[in-house]
Amino acid sequence: MRDTDLQRVRALPLFSGVSSDVFRRLTGGAFLQRFPAGTTLLLEGDRVDFLYVLLDGTVELQGAWKDRETTLAVLRPVSTFILAAVVLDADGLMSARTLQRSEIFMLSGEVIRRTMKEDSDFAFAVSQELAGCYRGLVRSIKSQKLRTGVERLANYLITQRIRQGAEDKITLQYEKRVLAALLGMTPENLSRAFASLASHGVTVRGPTVTFSRLEALERLARPSPLIDNHMPPQNRITSKGESERWASEVARAVGYAH
Amino acid sequence: MRDTDLQRVRALPLFSGVSSDVFRRLTGGAFLQRFPAGTTLLLEGDRVDFLYVLLDGTVELQGAWKDRETTLAVLRPVSTFILAAVVLDADGLMSARTLQRSEIFMLSGEVIRRTMKEDSDFAFAVSQELAGCYRGLVRSIKSQKLRTGVERLANYLITQRIRQGAEDKITLQYEKRVLAALLGMTPENLSRAFASLASHGVTVRGPTVTFSRLEALERLARPSPLIDNHMPPQNRITSKGESERWASEVARAVGYAH
DNA sequence: CCTGCACCTTGACGAACATCAATCGATCAA
DNA sequence: TTGATCGATTGATGTTCGTCAAGGTGCAGG
Lengths: 258, 258
Known about the structure:
alpha+beta, Jelly Rolls, Arc Repressor Mutant, subunit A, 4-stranded antiparallel sheet
């Protein structure tokens, strides 16, 4: 494992607060592993023995029932996943699958739990990370239950636009079928949703989306800081906890009215 | 505040592991408050200064957007809520409203955070609670995205039946309009969903629901341990963390196959 | 170059769901 | 008791969404 990889793990808010000594203990038995695209890292219901840290590539978290399946999240580096199952020493509720060739750092769940009980700084950092993940899911459920498919897409595009630098053009980071599952619709309906956004100045050509009438798009989308986290990319932070803290700060500064 | 109330707070998994000294510090500036039915305790977007512990009554957590609103959870004693916002010192993403006259114990968020940084046992307990809440939301999203309205209702009924003692009759714990919002549908559609379950042996009379052909209902509902947490009531545990640990143990013992 | 394949798109249709309006039943105060 | 109110239900109707089938497009391999 390269030293720069370990630096990137160290820089995560989850680990940046702990002492070098504790960090060495946490990563003692850990290892880096490479997976090709399309590999199932973890099947829902499997026991979870490791905390995963995605260092390179893309990972999809999905759930299935009967013959249906859906995507709960798509992760990009640097992200941790299945932390909740590790903390509770429980089985995973989601499957994890690589969408691209990926590098993943794996830390022993047992060591994580033991270290949490010994080091309150680390346990606090885990709590902050989990709280951030929790709030991400709250946003996701609200989006799913309160918005139609077109509205979810419109807000997704606005959020991506900000994350990609607030230009009038963005690139979709993964296949449209994956995006459809993430937004809770079929690929067919995603196509139709894009088509209906054309009248709001949205043009799609392959994976690039351009906006010509942002005002019209926002009037339809009505983004809300209580659903959409519009943290821009310059904040080089890669944790749900930190991004939630950012969102709260902004909401207070702006004085968001209900 | 009665001493028995404090005992009930102390018995929560969130607090049961800490020393008496730390518990005294946590509850030092805390106080008990009574609210009538229909009181809004917290509006989404408000800053959260307290951790709430519901000791008596019923509380609904809801979210709104444009002119729509939905229910994310209905809490019964003894439950904590808005822990995630407290940990991150962030604004709440959900509104909290009493459905019945309620007694609520309120602990200073600042003290919670400070104690977490000092006491790793408490910080670990917070992590376990948050991890349990997180997994509850994962279950909720999967149910919402993978199931139809009738399927969600059928599984809700089966879960309630187990929680209420596995008899052939249950009592709905709150108004049907609230249940409808929780299940992600309109009251009208909930009525129709109940009507369509009649052919599966489900009879509704006011708030009581009786099951005459459980086999037929389960064939339709297809409950899954990866979505539905069927923890029975005899486990007198009142935390999401503990109930998730229970669910995992059972899934392993049964050897759930995908 | 063609062929096959994967991904996306489009159209047609039906299922699931929301909305609007009317009605019924239970509760409660006058 | 009467009238009013609230919650639940039912029917009619339209929207949203999923499913099935048929193209279309880009790309890799023969």
